[in-house]
Amino acid sequence: MPDLEWDICAFTDIVKDDRGLVMIPTAIQEPLQSYEVLVVPGGYGTRTLIHDKNFVEWIKTAGRAS
To answer: What is the pLDDT of residue 42?
Structure first.
């Protein structure tokens, strides 16, 4: 797919999982409405994020699925 473009978007400037995998985002806290697909990884480490009002509000910038 020659026209495929993707970004690693994050709420923080570095993302690390409990096993040591580190991802450096290409977009930090930028609104998400311009993306066609949004993948939000899960797992035990993300459970606290459901209570993080700022993070949840950022995810909501993606808008509604149609």
So the answer is: 85
Given this model, what pLDDT does residue 17 score?
84
Strand (E) positions, the chain?
9-10, 15-16, 22-23, 27-28
Overall average pLDDT of the 6-23 stretch: 91
Six-digit token pair at 40? 């939000």
Q: How confident is the model at residue 66 (pLDDT cuts 50, 70, 90)?
A: low
Task: Kindly tell me the burial class for residue 28, based on how many C-beta atoms sit within 10 Å of its own C-beta (0-12, 13-18, 19 or more).
Answer: middle
Say how many C-beta atoms besides its own lie within 10 A of residue 49's C-beta.
Answer: 14
| C-alpha to C-alpha distances, 57 to 18, 21, 32, 63, nearest whole angstrom | 24, 25, 11, 10
**C-alpha to C-alpha distance for 35 and 21, rounded to whole angstroms:** 24
